[in-house]
Amino acid sequence: MTEVVIYTTKWCPYCIRAKALLEKLSLSYQEIAVDGQPALREKMMELSGRHTVPQIFIDGTSIGGCDDLVALHNGGKLAAMLSR
Hints:
Blueprint: E1 4-8, H1 13-24, E2 30-33, H2 38-48, E3 55-58, E4 61-64, H3 66-74, H4 77-82
Parallel strand pairs: 1-2
Antiparallel strand pairs: 1-3, 3-4
């Protein structure tokens, strides 16, 4: 089974949008909230090379943020990543 991890903050509209897409696609995911958690945000930045949320990982590979997730989905590439 594919592992999806998403680093988020509570009020981020892009986080909400990314989670909504994952839920629409019936994908389970692990959410890691970095609100007030500098160590978790630091880990996210080390793993992704980015400081913004959301940061989404599929099987440990960073795919970027919400716009990247939507682009993969719209381009038909997300399904291929999930079926590995």
